[in-house]
Amino acid sequence: MITYYNPFYNVYRINKNTPNEYYIVDSAKKYTEDTVPTTVFNRPLSGIHNIKKYKNPYIGNNSNIGNLLNSLPLHEYGYVFKIDSKNQGLTVNYNATDWYHNEELYINKSLIYNSVSIFSLIDNVQSIQYNFSGSTYTTTRKMIEENYSHFEKVKENEKNFNQYLENKMNDDEFTRRIFNKILVKKVL
Q1: Which of the chain's ends, N or C, has fewer CB atoms near its CB within 10 Å?
Q2: Which positions ≥6 away from 22 have C-beta within 8 Å?
């Protein structure tokens, strides 16, 4: 993080020189470098304050799912998706190789974040499959509900979403611990 100080406001540059770089302009000067909210993702795009507008009871709304995926991490690699309305499933095919882009657990954190976000915002989705050029990852609503301990709290409000999901993505140990409990990897 880089901080620019000025008499009227501070600017925090988060994720410098990455695809997820973003800025926080703090005109009230309520943050310090230790308290400014940070995430490995582009928070203005992927944060709950933006993605909550895609909350929907049904997975079958194609444009809503597309807009949600455009706001979530990994969209920067390009993708196509398919909705299985009959089985209430979603398949996302990313134009990337998972092992190549997993520096600092970025792919793992993104898949956790995307899965919990989708299941919390789309009420009837039951399964998600993420395809990369080398691997496939699958998860189900049941896996999330049984293994992501604060899933019900994540769905309650923005504060809980930030506390129990977004902020957890800064914790590499949490990511390593939860990843294999909620996602199944299959090497192609």
Answers
A1: C
A2: 14, 15, 42, 43, 44, 45
The pLDDT assigned to 152 comes to 95
What does the angle CA 146 – CA 162 – CA 39 come to, to the nearest 5 degrees? 110
C-alpha neighbours within 13 Å on the C-beta side of residue 2:
8
Gap between the Cα atoms of 108 and 85, Å rounded:
26
Q: How many CA atoms lie within 13 A of 28 on its CB side?
A: 3
Other beta carbons within 10 Å of 161: 24
The answer to whether 62 and 83 are in contact (CB under 8 A) is yes
Place of tokens 């199944």: 184
Beta carbons of 120 and 151 less than 8 angstroms apart: yes
**E-only strand ranges, the chain:** 2-5, 10-14, 22-26, 79-84, 89-94, 127-131, 135-140, 184-187
Rounded to 5°, the CA angle 24-30-34 comes to 75
Q: What is the mean pLDDT of residues 19-48?
A: 82
Q: What is the mean pLDDT of residues 38-48?
A: 82
Mean pLDDT (the chain) is 91
